[in-house]
## 1
Amino acid sequence: MATGAGTEQTQVIEEIEPFEAQQEIEGGDVVLIDTREPHEYQEAHLDGGTLVPPAMLADQIEAAAPDKSARTLLYCRSGNRSGIAAAQLQSLGYTNVASVAGGIIAWQEQGLPVVSASGMTAEQRERYSRHTLLPEVGVDGQIKLLNAKVLLLGAGGLGAPTALYLAAAGVGTIGLVDDDVVDASNLQRQVIHNTERIGMPKTTSARIFIEQLNPDVKVVEHNGRLDASNILAVMEDYDIVVDGADNFPTRYLLNDASVRTRKPVVSASILGFDGQVSTFMPYEGPCYRCLFPTPPPAELAPSCSANGVLGVMAGTMGTLQANEVIKLVLGAGEPLIGRLLLYDALGTTFTELKVRRDPDCPICGEHAAEIPESEMGQFPDYDLFCAGAGGDR
Amino acid sequence: MATVRIPPVLRPKTGGNSEVDAAGGNVGEVLRALTAAHPDTSAQLFDAEGELNRYVNVYLNDEDVRVLDGLETAVKDSDSVVILPAMAGGAF
């Protein structure tokens, strides 16, 4: 029997064997508390166990175990800390508390199951510990990120910050499409490149940075431009596409290919002090063409090279894209599906607009033509489509 | 008066203003009031037949007027009319 710590009288604490605890847990109506430290919890814990470290017990136990009359089981590594915590809980008025004898060590010795970070190495458990502490990520979510394959269209103003945060987050495969080389005028915003690497292909420069940041990430360089002839082959190996393209033909091509292949696209665009971002999930929400059925004429669509762009605003939009990607991988939160978020960096204001599926959308609408397998790789001429935009003006 | 939010590409035609107050009982009237005050915006917003150009999205507050009553959509003084052209600026 463990004894109460620092209390006036010795308390009797019920101890139960791991197999008994497991039967109770399986029977339901049990609150299971892990009284260890966060790093121990991350390594392995009992399924359903809520972490309440000893130092946090008084502050956190009521949130973790609101009903003081409920059956409350505590465990730690070997049974000592959980015994002390059980005595504290009894002092706090909990009436049905037990400590698991021998802790998680005895539990595992008896061959009972735990939730472990076994899919990750010790280095990964350390590297991603701030992620795995979040209930929305956890070990399972981090493993999803490590297995995710994300294609970034552009390794520039948007792609640079997106790539940095996706790489840091441990997204296991990052594909980079870009046909440009690093230029001095890029460095005001494209933070993945640097002065030494001016003249180097952007995909290579970005790969060097990512490999130094996180050896878990495999970088695939697609040093070229996406076009109708290669887009399906390039997209095939990826789960999610991040659109940071600088021209309308590529954006419409990507949209049409992603709807055909039912892959989500996290899309952003930037100009001056303004940015737009949305997530296009084929058939679940609108596509890019539902939002913008027709590209604008050239005078209404200046490029960043002609108009200028605030570097940090590109960073804001790129990191918002990374945030969307991570939520899609985790299946957590509310992605920007059917919502267009506008950011005005001068006013520091965000505006959200509703975007609806267009029943008449030629790509994803009710009357969109089925595309036979043999024509999957055939696309219209987007340069012509965009050049003709705006009619006769 | 309703507030019209002007996208970056149109601001040179509104004296640099990102918001312009414009009177009108519906979206069409508000946009006409805008083009009356800033005539250079007209060709960007409307086609030769006086219809909204297809590449310009217009929202009343957060809703696309295409799913409301288009240019006939009623506007209150406290409303915001957002003009939104597609932007392609990105990464390269």
## 2
Amino acid sequence: MNPMIEMKNLSFAYTKDNLVVDDVNLTINKGEWVTILGHNGSGKSTLSKLMIGLLRAKTGTIKIDGLTLSEETVYDIRKKVGIVFQNPDNQFVGVTVRDDIAFGLENLQIPRETMLEKIDKYARKVNMQEFMNKEPQQLSGGQKQRVAIAGILAMETDVIIFDEATAMLDPKGRKNIYEYMKELNREGVTIITITHDMKEAVDADRIIVLKDGRILKNDTAQNILKDQETLEQSNLELLLPLDVLYSLEKENVNHDALKEYLWQSSLKG
Amino acid sequence: MAIQFERVSHQYVGMDQKGYLAIEDIRLNIRGDGELIALIGETGSGKSTLVQHMNALLQPTQGRMNIFGIKVDNLTKKRKDVKLTPIRKQVGLVFQFPEYQLFEETVEKDIMFGPKNFGASEEEAKEKAREIINVVGLDESYLSRSPFNLSGGEKKRASIAGILAMEPDVLILDEPTSGLDPLGRNALLEVFNRIHEELNKTVIIITHDMNTVYEYAKRVLVMREGTLVYDGDPLKLFSKKNIDRWNLDKPEVLALAQDIENKFDIHFDKPPRNKTMLKNALKEALK
């Protein structure tokens, strides 16, 4: 296993005495898909901002692909790690859709022709190719979000963090991006997703559950998904079929075929 | 009728001077006496444009609106005798990520801002804040807190309290639960349900979450490419065979209930609307 991200004794606080991230030790391997779950305020987003140097840790270290994050390395690290946030209005920087997707690429100083190819390719990936000359105020929230995703995809980083990046999308747009995450992961991109939706956690290699800034659980997706106690502690819900299955078991209902069906449905997410 | 759309269209004009028709030929009636309506549709289908007409933030470029007796059309803005301020009070609009609009030192001051703006005295506005904070499920201790130290769900509630304090008859919320954990989401949905049932206000929720639509809404509106393609009962909508065409997902509870009926010798007399109803119906059926 080759580590892609290594966090050691990582802590962070916005105010003096309130640790939002509290002594986190976590290694994410190259090509892994890791989902971070947790209640609102558990430190998920703060952790992701630490990983790309948007926030500076109070104590501890972060290594990305062997490179220790510091003021000197932060720009090199952002060539390796991309992040998409939930709210598109905080992310749209271009005058038009094309400009916006180009923004990150311009900093990489790549030839113009390659750049145009990439813009076109990733606009298609998020289904925004027909909106290239539109201005942000002509776009809906979900469309802006798709543009933000394309901008990060175009950077072709080794790691992409999706911080509730699909929460603003309609069901079809969500599925579309989710399928593409899987494709990227198959191609070797390390994927980190932050979500409250258990259906988006079933395909992860590993799930990290954060609670009050600490790692509560670090386990396989299968083990976390059926762990009712952990989920409840984190304000999360069991997948619907599993929830129904547990309630039938509690009432000692005998119907093995139905129970097996509910279990299988849960694994599909 | 509280809000009436009479063949309303709205065209945006961009920097390139090209027009873009965001909503087209909308006919719609919203009552003011306690409807709970879900508004759904793909991103870019015109949902946000539609609701911004409901409190006259946008005016039709064609057709006309009647909002609590005030007529609004493409000439309204030019006329000096038509005041839109009362509409803004009667129809409260909560935007996406309302928590970004909190700006005062305390939650109390944030809630008081609206009422004071509409002429309430300092004391009246204070009294209002105390009353409203409970409605959104926060206690009075929150009034003295800074909005910036609240959790995501608490911030959303505080900002919704600010709109409610203006005592609107119709409350419109644009994706109010996005970003909340399931516990926070369910609590907030219960708040809306209470506003609708106990305060008898009409609540319109824009959402992509079909489970919310199915469990809470009495009426659902579907927008597609700028036109209103469905206005009616949620169960009927999700029972339609061709909902895939509109890129809508089936609510999970309904999909699972139908799957169970198809695969096993189990029949539900009434389709369960939420998971508690589904569990109870199953237990009943398997007794």
